[in-house]
Amino acid sequence: MKLKEYEIEKVYLETGELKKEIVYENGKVFLITVYYINGNIKSKMYMRGKVKHGNVVEFYPNGQLKSNIDYENDIPVDGPYTIYLDDGSVWEKGIFKNNGKEIELVIKSGNLVEEVFTVKENFN
Questions:
Q1: N or C: more exposed end of the chain, with fewer CB within 10 A?
Q2: How many CA atoms lie within 13 A of 44 on its CB side?
Q3: pTM exceeds 0.70, yes or no
């Protein structure tokens, strides 16, 4: 069995703060972590080449979780998701269905709703 080879590329701002880290697996982008200027993580995206493939987590500058969504080939994986405000309250909660083509909303703009809609644009 061949071991996977990993390389890490770090990109810094002109002021010296870490801007992002890119982890390569066998020469292909595997994980991108982007940082706020205060050093907190802004986002962490597992990739397969140039598309999101795996867990994508986003945070606010204060460190509060914004969203945590799983992707497969740049399409949200069917199942529940939640988007939070920077104070931790729920902004949107729903369920991805039909290979990410439909979203059943439970909470929208912080209010309870029952709404199903079809996604007409790409999530990129």
A1: N
A2: 9
A3: yes
